[in-house]
């Protein structure tokens, strides 16, 4: 049974005016997005930004209040089963039956699709071979995440949704997951993921959208968004304990100094030119800084610039 | 094929919960053994009548003589001892001097035994009075017989179909209804919601699994009934199986339907009890309702378990065919269809 309008050309996803409200809170409002085939697209934002709600509306789990969604050129109302057969989903948290094993789960879920990949190759891909026959309830959080990822790929999907795929993973497992995402992309699939980690967004995403309080703040490539800021570098002065008020020092310097919890940040176009004068002035003013760090601007800075808040709220 | 895989997975997961599976089979068997043994083979329960003091008249002696012909156990006590026993609440009925003759005192806390004893005493008293007047009492012959003319007074035989029906009811409301609400509440269905698995295959897989479980349970109960109590199915096994399949379908549909109205396990427990408790107690599983008020008897037949058990007993205990059962089975079939429709409309993955 083939859907009428499903094509292999055209965007993987198109959203117009997507919105969802719960009593007392607007989760998502007026969202417009377009995701091209074969790209890794990220939804970046702090907790509560509406990323998961957005994703679940796109996946057909939660009904949208307003807006239109077209996945692979198809419409949920008319082509539900076909869409489900062509997408793979990793939920934010996957709850499976207690005593099912990874191998059984992959075989069972695979059987729901007209075409599916073998359990063995998927177990290898996410490195769950040695736990293939363990009851789900005995798996660690990270192992459950990896199984959920394997399940998302079981039907050889064209479009893969990953909701916060590295939350709760240790650094090594995170790197492992990033590798899997790169593999998925190399296989020609489209990936849409949500995250609140800026390094993940920068490393994995071809393009991304930044969300806050259910609204789209901006969208573009990671590098493009950072360049738009116009501040390629940031000089950080780190303090032991709470950073003092930078006001007086900033006045003396004639530059903007942003005070964060335990550090001062000074944006600059040219750190090499700034540094000598800065250090001298700091010395002269007796600023008790412990560390100095020069880094390039990141998506965190972009978010800060747009909202005045940190991604990690 | 997919349906068979689902069915097999249901059995696999079910069999991994050893404890639950054990009790699912052991519990009904224990109930049958327990109740069947306790309530024995229909012999009349031993009733005790306390005689607190003697009335030394001809009539009084006649009455006591008459009482000794009855199956009552007479306990002659001094008035003081009798009063002490009464105060402790151990006496169901007491015969005591009242005016020129005897009177009866019945314990309200033991009304069932007490009333029964009182009736036997009244009959003995009337018989004694008849004899005194020179007549010989001639009671009518009484024959214990079921609607299908079966003669067994074995309570276990009455109980067995009741337990079979009860088993189906709790399988439907709890094993199906509660389990689904609980899984949904814990989010275990969410992952399924994003797959193309059709809801009906999922539900049917569950239904088939539970159906095979109940068939096994029923077979075990019938075997135990036969070996422990000599109870045999008096009707056709084919008909019995068909009627049991109908019962399974009915109560499972009810479970699914109710599950569609509850968000949480606690909510489901409340909703299901509204149906479960009246049916469990009032539908004739353990005892019949012939002594209950008329309005209650008429109200209970609206719920499906009553007519279902009547049909089941007719087949099992009386060897009846389908002939007289259409009305009762019709009620059950109606409930099945109605619950199924509600279930399908209200079933959600999350």
Description:
The complex is a heterodimer of chains A (313) and B (350). With 313 residues, chain A is α/β, with parallel strands linked by helices. Chain A has helices at residues 51-58, 76-86, 102-110, 119-125, 141-153, 171-186, 198-204, 222-229, 247-253, 271-285, 299-307, and strands at residues 13-22, 25-35, 40-44, 66-71, 87-90, 159-163, 190-195, 207-212, 215-220, 233-238, 258-259, 263-268, 291-296. In chain A, α3 (102-110) packs across α4 and α8 packs across α11. The model of chain A is unreliable at 1-6 (pLDDT under 50). With 350 residues, chain B is of the alpha/beta class. Chain B has helices at 2-15, 18-38, 58-69, 79-87, 111-132, 155-185, 190-193, 199-229, 237-259, 265-282, 294-300, 305-316, 326-346; strands spanning 48-52, 73-77, 93-98, 101-106. The radius of gyration of chain B is 27 Å and the shape is elongated. In chain B, α2 packs parallel to α8 (199-229), α6 packs antiparallel against α8 and α6 packs antiparallel against α10 (265-282). Chain B contains 13 helices and four strands. The longest helix of chain B has 31 residues, at 155-185. The A-B interface holds A 59-61, 81, 84-85, 87, 89, 91, 93-97, 99-100, 104, 108-109, 111-113, 135, 148, 151 and B 2, 5, 9, 12-13, 16-17, 183, 186-188, 190-191, 193-198, 350.
């Amino acid at each position: 049974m083939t859907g009428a309008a499903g094509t292999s050309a055209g965007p993987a996803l198109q959203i117009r005016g997507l919105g969802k409200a719960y009593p007392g809170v607007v989760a998502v409002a007026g969202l417009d997005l377009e995701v091209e085939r074969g790209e890794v697209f990220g939804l970046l934002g702090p907790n509560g930004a509406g990323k998961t709600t957005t994703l679940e509306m796109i996946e057909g789990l939660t009904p949208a209040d307003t807006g239109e969604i077209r996945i692979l050129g198809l419409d949920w109302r008319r082509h539900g089963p076909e869409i489900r057969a062509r997408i793979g989903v990793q939920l934010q948290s996957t709850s499976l039956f207690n005593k099912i094993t990874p191998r059984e789960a992959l075989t069972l879920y695979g059987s729901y699709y007209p075409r599916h990949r073998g359990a063995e190759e998927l177990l290898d891909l996410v490195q769950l071979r040695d736990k293939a026959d363990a009851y789900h309830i005995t798996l660690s959080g990270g192992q459950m995440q990896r199984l959920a990822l394997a399940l998302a790929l079981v039907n050889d999907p064209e479009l893969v949704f990953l909701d916060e795929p590295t939350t709760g993973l240790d650094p090594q497992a995170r790197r492992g997951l990033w590798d899997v995402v790169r593999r998925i992309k190399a296989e020609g699939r489209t990936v849409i993921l949500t995250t609140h980690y800026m390094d993940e967004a920068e490393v994995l995403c071809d393009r991304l959208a930044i969300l806050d309080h259910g609204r789209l703040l901006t969208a573009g490539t990671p590098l493009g968004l950072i360049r738009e800021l116009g501040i390629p570098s940031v000089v950080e002065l780190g303090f032991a304990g709470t950073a003092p008020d930078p006001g007086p020092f900033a006045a003396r310097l004639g530059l903007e100094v942003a005070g964060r919890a335990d550090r001062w940040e000074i944006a600059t176009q040219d750190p090499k030119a700034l540094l000598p004068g800065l250090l001298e002035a700091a010395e002269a003013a007796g600023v008790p800084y412990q560390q100095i760090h020069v880094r390039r601007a990141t998506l965190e800075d972009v978010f800060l610039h747009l909202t005045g808040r940190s991604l990690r709220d | 094929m997919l349906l068979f895989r689902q069915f097999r997975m249901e059995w696999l997961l079910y069999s991994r919960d050893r404890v639950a599976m054990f009790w699912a089979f052991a519990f009904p068997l224990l109930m049958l053994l327990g109740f069947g043994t306790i309530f024995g083979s229909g012999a009349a329960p031993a009733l005790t009548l306390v005689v607190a003091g003697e009335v030394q008249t001809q009539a009084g002696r006649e009455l006591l003589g008459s009482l000794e012909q009855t199956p009552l156990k007479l306990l002659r006590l001094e008035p003081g001892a009798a009063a002490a026993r009464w105060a402790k609440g151990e006496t169901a009925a007491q015969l005591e001097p009242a005016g020129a003759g005897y009177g009866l005192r019945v314990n309200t806390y033991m009304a069932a035994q007490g009333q029964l004893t009182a009736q036997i005493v009244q009959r003995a008293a009337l018989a004694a009075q008849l004899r005194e007047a020179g007549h010989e009492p001639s009671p009518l012959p009484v024959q214990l017989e079921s609607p299908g003319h079966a003669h067994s007074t074995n309570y276990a035989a009455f109980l067995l179909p009741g337990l079979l029906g009860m088993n189906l009811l709790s399988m439907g409301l709890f094993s199906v209804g509660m389990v689904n609400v609980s899984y949904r509440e814990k989010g275990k269905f969410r992952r399924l919601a994003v797959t193309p698995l059709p809801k009906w295959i999922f539900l049917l897989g569950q239904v088939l699994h539970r159906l095979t479980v109940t068939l096994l349970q029923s077979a075990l109960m019938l075997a135990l009934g036969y070996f422990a109590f000599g109870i045999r199915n008096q009707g056709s096994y084919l008909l019995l199986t068909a009627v049991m399949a109908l019962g399974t379908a009915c109560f499972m549909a009810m479970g699914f339907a109710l599950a569609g109205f509850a968000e949480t396990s606690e909510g489901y427990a409340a909703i299901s009890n509204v149906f479960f408790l009246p049916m469990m107690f009032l539908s004739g599983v353990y005892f019949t309702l012939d002594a209950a008020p008329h309005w209650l008897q008429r109200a209970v037949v609206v719920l499906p378990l009553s007519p279902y058990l009547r049909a089941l007993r007719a087949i099992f205990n009386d060897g009846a065919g389908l002939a007289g059962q259409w009305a009762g089975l019709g009620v059950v079939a109606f409930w099945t269809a109605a619950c199924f429709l509600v279930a399908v409309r209200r079933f959600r993955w999350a």
